[in-house]
Amino acid sequence: MSIIVNRNKPLTNQVKSDSHDLYNPPQMVSMDIGFIMLFLGITGVIVPTFLGLALSPMHCFVLCASAVLAIWSGYLNNRRKAFFINFALAVFFTLNALAGIILGGRADMILKVMPGFLELTSIDHVLHGVLALAFFSEAIAWRIYLRKDGPHHLRSENTAI
């Protein structure tokens, strides 16, 4: 979704390789993760058992709010804020996954945070673990991008071809 988004100019078929009008890779991945989470949150309102998840209204709200934060961190032009947003989301989803695995019931690992209002199943814990890994890797990508002060190049400029 974010790959086709251009910051300042209308969408064209030709993009210069040194153009600074497009989003950088960490921004695009952050926005893509956010759009996927937003899709899950909105779909969960319509189909509460989508993909076997227990998407209660509260769970959908948390997914949509996290999605908005992820999209916003991708849209930001401030790398430090984007790093901290992705890191905070990673910690949040890690704690959710660990709480579900440790405190969940023994049969199907259902964690009843608020019975009837917010219940998380084992598939939800897996989703939270995957989201935590995605946000941690995104935070690392932002940190590398922050240190390098630009895109990460695999080949240094001094090496001969």
Can you tell me about this structure?
It is a single chain. The chain has four helices and two strands. By secondary structure, it is mainly alpha-helical. It has one domain (23-148). Strand 1 and strand 2 (118-120) form a beta hairpin. Helix 1 (25-46) packs antiparallel against helix 2 (57-75) and helix 2 (57-75) packs antiparallel against helix 3. Residues 6-20 and 152-157 have low confidence and may be disordered.
Q: Main sheet: which strands, in order across?
A: 1-2
Number of domains: 1
Give the amount of beta strand, in percent.
under 5%
Overall morphology = globular
Q: Enumerate the spans where pLDDT stays under 50 for 5 or more consecutive residues.
A: 6-20, 152-157
Query: Overall mean pLDDT score?
Result: 75
SSE order: HHHEEH
Give me the secondary-structure category: mainly alpha
User: Could you give the count of β-strands?
Assistant: 2
Number of helices: 4
In helices, the fraction of residues equals 55-70%
Rounded to an integer in angstroms, the radius of gyration calculated over CA atoms is 19 Å
